């Protein structure tokens, strides 16, 4: 079965050529957040987007009962908030620090400065955004044919990026179950399989990757 290859960081910024990416990030402002701290809320003005330098960010929506419905987990090397920022519409989701994390804020001034430095950058940014959206659609379509075990392996690989063996993913098993859209029981069985094979080490609010190569093999099986 052909499955999508996890990238070492996905999203808008990751799709840029390295020189352009480094240039853009160097213009941004580093911000630190502690676990559970709200980064953005639904309805906020989208005055910036964020690049995750370290740690993880939970993306979802808080209900009237105060419970967060998790849509995705964003790991190091990924971005979020760029669609609302580029489209100039209000935030549609909440973003919360999944653990202590460092983000780079990129706003109008930083983006305009980059585009003014080279007229060709504007077209490149638009092309990268379009490819990012298409990649997300392809990933969703491919994931529909995967087992729960494969989907868990895929999610863990994406979250740890290029830091595989020994990487710690700050997420509970309920977070991961919500992310995959499966029951806590189904997620637990898949996690147990990976644990028994010494591929991952689940802990309290954290999952440690022990064997990234084996995790990739699970996804490709």
List the keywords.
alpha+beta; 8 helices; 42% helix; four-stranded antiparallel β-sheet; single chain; 221 residues; 11 strands; globular
Description:
By secondary structure, the chain is of the alpha+beta class. The chain is 42% helix and 23% strand. The strands form 3 sheets. Strands 1-8-3-6 form a 4-stranded antiparallel sheet. Strands 2-7-4-5 form a 4-stranded antiparallel sheet. Mean pLDDT is 83; it is low at 1-9.
Précis, in short:
The protein is of the alpha+beta class. The protein contains 8 helices and 11 strands.
Shape: globular
Quaternary structure of the protein: single chain
List low-confidence stretches: 1-9
Per DSSP E runs of 2 or more residues, the count of β-strands stands at 11
Give the SSE string. HEEEEEEHEEHHHEHHEEH
Give the termini separation: 7 Å
Strand content: 15-25%
Major sheet characteristics: 4 strands, antiparallel
Percent helix range: 40-55%
Q: Which structural class fits the helix and strand makeup?
A: alpha+beta
The total of helices stands at 8
Across the major sheet, the strand order is: 1-8-3-6
Query: What is the gyration radius calculated from CA atoms?
Result: 17 Å
Q: Return the average pLDDT rounded to an integer.
A: 83
Give a topology summary:
Elements: H1 18-27, E1 29-33, E2 38-40, E3 48-54, E4 57-62, E5 68-74, E6 79-80, H2 82-87, E7 94-97, E8 101-107, H3 108-117, H4 120-143, H5 148-160, E9 168-169, H6 173-180, H7 184-196, E10 200-203, E11 206-209, H8 212-220
Antiparallel strand pairs: 1-8, 2-7, 3-6, 3-8, 4-5, 4-7, 9-11, 10-11
Helix pairs in contact: 1-3, 5-8, 6-7
């Amino acid at each position: 079965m052909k499955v999508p290859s996890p990238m070492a960081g996905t999203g808008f910024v990751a799709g840029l050529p390295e020189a352009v990416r480094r240039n853009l990030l160097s213009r941004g402002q580093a911000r630190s957040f502690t676990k559970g701290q709200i980064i953005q809320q639904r309805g906020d003005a989208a005055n910036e987007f964020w690049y995750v330098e370290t740690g993880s960010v939970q993306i979802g929506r808080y209900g009237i009962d105060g419970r967060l419905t998790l849509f995705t987990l964003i790991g190091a090397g990924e971005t979020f908030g760029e669609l609302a920022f580029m489209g100039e519409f209000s935030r549609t989701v909440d973003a919360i620090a999944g653990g202590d994390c460092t983000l780079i804020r990129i706003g109008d001034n930083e983006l305009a400065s980059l585009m003014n430095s080279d007229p060709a950058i504007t077209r490149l940014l638009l092309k990268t955004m379009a490819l990012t959206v298409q990649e997300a659609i392809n990933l969703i379509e491919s994931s529909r044919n995967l087992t729960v075990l494969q989907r868990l392996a895929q999610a863990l690989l994406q979250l740890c990026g290029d830091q595989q063996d020994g990487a710690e993913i700050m997420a509970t098993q309920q977070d991961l179950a919500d992310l995959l859209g499966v029951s806590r029981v189904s997620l637990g069985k898949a996690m147990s399989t990976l644990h028994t094979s010494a591929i991952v080490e689940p802990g309290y609010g954290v999952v440690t990757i022990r064997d990234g190569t084996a995790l990739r093999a699970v996804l490709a099986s």
